[in-house]
Amino acid sequence: MRPRTIAWAVAAAMTLAAAGCGEPAPAVPGTAGPSASPGPRVVRVAVTVTGGKARTAQRRVKVPRGAVVEITVTGDTPEEFHLHGYDRELKITPGRPATLRFTAATPGVFEAELHRSGARAFELQVG
Ligand SMILES: [Cu+2]
């Protein structure tokens, strides 16, 4: 008798723990399925960065699971925008809006921050 179930449990725990900054996020499958509703909802978030400070209409953006999220970031200095959890990044060039588009398939609260200034942009709440 070999304790194979223990190895399984350890592997599962390690998978769940991998959610930190800079670590690769688990693959997020698309939401399109045979019973998908007529077109996903699109939620747009505009972020403006001036003087190292990020401004958004809401501090916490709530979206339903499965919605398409479109984040547009405009900055006055070179920046790096990072959405944790989904682990998506945007390189910001001064004066040029950059857009990130993805399907919010994973529920939870995810922090969006700017790496150069260290400022928190907003929190994305899915589900
Ligand atoms: Cu980060």
TrEMBL record:
InterPro entries: Cupredoxin
Signal peptide range in chain numbering: 1-19
Record keywords, A-Z: Signal
Protein name in UniProt: EfeO-type cupredoxin-like domain-containing protein
Organism: Actinomadura chokoriensis
